[in-house]
Every structure is written in C-alpha cells, then in structure tokens.
C-alpha cells in the first residue's frame, strides 16, 4: 500500500471559517500561520511593472541567486556561493528536495513532537520513517543534543526548526552547537527549516549553517517576507549536492513562478517595512500573552519567535478538533487543533496564530476571554 497521509486539520477549520463568513459572520482567522500584511510595497511595484514589461516563461533569476547568497552570508556569517542556492516554490517543495537528497526510502529521520505537520507527512510520502521525539515544555518543545545522543539506534537524520511551528520556540546558540556536534559524531544528517528566521522577539534565531556546513537549509518568502501565496523559497545545499538538488528541482517542479522571482528580489531590500511587521507581531504577542491568564491558559511556552501560541487546553477538552470547531462557531475565532502537530498529545492543545492585525488580536481577545471564562465554570472540578 502507498503511504497514507493524514489530512491537514487546520484546512477543515478554514473551510468552516469560510462558510461562516459566507453566511455573514465575522470571523478572525487565527488558524493559519500566514502574515495578513501582503507583499512589501516595492515587491508589488516590481511585480506590476514586470507584468507589463516582460515575458514570463520558465526562468531562474541569476540576480536572485546572487542576492540570496549574499543574504545568507549577511545573516549567517558563512560564505555561500550562488550555485549553492536552489530556488524553489516555497519551503514545502524545498523540504521534499532536501529530504530526498539526503535520505533513501527506509531511512529514519528524527523530528520534534509537537512539530510542523508536513514534516511527518512529507517523510512518510517519501517512505522515510519519522522518529518522533516527544519534546515538552522543559526543553522548550525543541529537540536537544541530549535527546539525539540518547536515540538508539542513531537516526539517519534530523529536522531542526528554530523558531518552530507550532510553539515559536528558538534553540539557543549553545544547543545548536551541541546538536551539530552530536550529529557529526553519530553520522546524523541535518535538515534545518529556517522559515521563521527574521521573526524573533529577543535574540535573533541562529541558522544551523555556521555549526554544520553540511546541513541543508530550507527557507522561504512565506513568513518574514510576507509573501506566502507567491510560492517562492530556497535551499542552501553543500557543494557536493548542487547537481542532484538542481536535478530534483528541475524534474519535479521546473522553476518557481517568474513573477515571484522578480518580486522576491525586490523584497530582499525591504527590511525596514518587514521589520515593521515583526514589531506588529511583537505587540500582538504581548497582548495575547497578557490575556492568556484570564482565559485560564497558563501552560504555554512563551514564543521567542514565529507568530504562534501553542496552549494546553487539556482542562477543557481531550478533543482539540471538536474544541476548535466549537470555539469557531461560538466566537468566530478560528484556531488550529493540536492534532495537526502532535498525534499523541495534540488532542489537548490549540494553536493561535497572531499574524493578523493588532485590532483583530484585540477583538479576538475580547471574544475569547468571556468564552474561556464560561468554559471554566462549566469544566469539571
Ligand atoms: C515550519 C514550516 N515549514 C515550512 C512551511 C511551508 O511554507 P511554504 O509556504 O514556504 O511552503 C511552513 C508553513 O506554514 C511552516 O510552518
């Protein structure tokens, strides 16, 4: 039988949200991790100009490859050549390419649980076995060097994500170094998903590249650059994998949209506008964190990055999907059920995305606080 994948449950929530909106209900969309801000203005201007000016055939922008190599060097301190950059249609195909480059069917790859739903499912689709490492609040919901060292037998690989989805937690630099060291010693290959880099609320999140030059780095324009629908991302691959990485991209996906490549190039020079979005997320985060205690939601990992709060609602439900549906129907606030991120304990978690505008976060809090307080009254002692 071919690998069977679970659905993305947040999509079900989103479908219900859209139905409610079509019925005239006011819905606040906190179920998806997508910026509501749109592409930076210079990227939009460039795209508009290109629409009138240029042919849009299959294409790979040499300028974008060079600019991304420079961006990687500026943000990681590691020299990266344009040849090491592979343009992709977002981080999702980049993950497919990275995993199929490093691992054969039957290989075992460690991932954090909770973790991004597509890690488990992409691994399964490629007939690679996910090795789920339970990561609780005591380790910031993140994979540690100690956990990797304790795995017997050693896995063939590991996916690192810092900041992570669904928790927003960041791996500290000394732990990144320790993870790289354990992986080097035990022959574990690292794929580092760095899609939330640039969105942090304290110290910046570190790339894995300075710690492991052999790591494959996955990144995208979907989060910090606020361009999820443009379907543009990139990989950084070590020299010896360049040919095979390009062969995979070419055969499986051809090229990313040419319009997006033009816009993406412009977006790379929009740091001021994009950092303004991060300041908005920081305000949203503060508002939400301040409101959580009055909602009775004390058990969370304060997110150091990304734009999520992953909250334990186990005192109210053991069925996060049913809970999210009821929450949506009764308050108009759409959230993602924990079962997307954790097949074992996710039934008692909910993820809030605060990548919406600050007034919407304020409105969501105004709806959520009385609703949660009413649930507490109804909850068994
Ligand atoms: C951790 C993580 N990796 C990858 C992706 C996929 O992003 P993209 O839109 O670039 O395919 C997401 C999307 O939410 C994500 O959260």
TrEMBL record:
Keywords: Aminotransferase, Pyridoxal phosphate, Transferase
Enzyme's top EC category: transferase
InterPro entries membership: Aminotransferase_I/II_large (IPR004839), AspAT/PAT-like (IPR050596), NHTrfase_class1_PyrdxlP-BS (IPR004838), PyrdxlP-dep_Trfase (IPR015424), PyrdxlP-dep_Trfase_major (IPR015421)
An example Gene Ontology biological process: amino acid metabolic process
Pfam families (UniProt xref): Aminotran_1_2
Domain Aminotransferase class I/classII large: 29-368
Family statement drawn from the similarity comment of this UniProt entry: Belongs to the class-I pyridoxal-phosphate-dependent aminotransferase family.
An MF annotation (GO) of this entry: L-aspartate:2-oxoglutarate aminotransferase activity
PANTHER family for this protein: AMINOTRANSFERASE, ASPARTATE AMINOTRANSFERASE
Keyword Transferase: yes
Keyword Repressor listed: no
Listed EC numbers: 2.6.1.-
Substrates-to-products reaction catalysed: L-aspartate + 2-oxoglutarate = oxaloacetate + L-glutamate
Top-level lineage group: Bacteria
Cited PROSITE patterns: AA_TRANSFER_CLASS_1 (PS00105)
Name used for this protein in its record: Aminotransferase
Listed cofactors: pyridoxal 5'-phosphate
